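Summary for the steering committee. One of the milestones for this cycle was to obtain a three-dimensional model of the protein with zinc ion bound, which we needed before selecting residues for the alanine scan. The sequence and ligand used are listed below.
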Amino acid sequence: MAKFKPAPGLEEKLALMLAPAVQRIARQVEIEAKRLAPPTKTWVTVGDDKVRPTHVNAQGQVVPGNLRFELDSMQWDIEHRGVGAHTYMLQPGDRSSRAIANLKNCRCSMHRDPDGIARHINTGQPVVTGKKVTVTVSVQAPKVVEAEVGTVYPGGLVAEGTFFMSRAAALVAARA
Ligand SMILES: [Zn+2]
């Protein structure tokens, strides 16, 4: 059987021709990833002089919606509740953090931003290297890897991953 041998330079030409199609696919991945991306949440104190220092330090902290805020622990919680140096809360007043002192009389709130991660998702320009076409869909945001795959906090508190990037890629691949 004859072996097909592409004309010299043909594969390179094909790669250039395919580049726009590859980019259209990448753009679809970007659109799905933006739809599937978790929101971000921001810790907000009331900002007066009665806010406890551990919450003053948390003011403005931004984390993906599936993750926990990291606060300094209060001494009582360290001694009586077995928490470590940090207390991990899904939102202000979160009892699943196992803290008590760090929750008591808390007046803090949480601001949710549905596009907090989505707005950082971008599709790059196609890069043609020889016979290869590469288009990168990227996202640069705080703790974005943990937003994707999840994490485990001290004390065994588990944050499930949202897998928004891999789900987006799988959805688009299934259409092809
Ligand atoms: Zn508070």
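Key point for the committee: The radius of gyration is 23 Å.
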